[in-house]
Amino acid sequence: MEESLGQYLQRVRTEKGYSLSDISAMTCIGFEYLAAVEAEDLPKLPAQTVTKSYVRSYARCLRLDEADVMKRFAEASGIFYRDRENAALAARLANTPNPLKSRLDALVSNFKLLF
Length: 115
Fold this sequence. Notes:
Layout: H1 5-15, H2 20-27, H3 31-39, H4 48-61, H5 66-94, H6 99-114
Helix pairs in contact: 4-5
């Protein structure tokens, strides 16, 4: 079985003798985000675009094949981020007033006044 993205990054980092604090200092990425990437604790990570840039920077710092690392990231995170984005969209839509409903309500009110 192929190791996960987090396992891979952690293994390479330790083989090269770096701590997470070292990587954080070299990449200017918060320690907690790097730890979340290695633990594959996706809920602790920011939006997908930001997290992708963190993973890419981490890969560059370790001189890894970026395409391979980003492929692993996509495989590990695809469903999570899709579901997170769908939930955010649903919440926005639920809180967005429906102009057609407002017009219909106004028409019904006016109609009631007439009769």
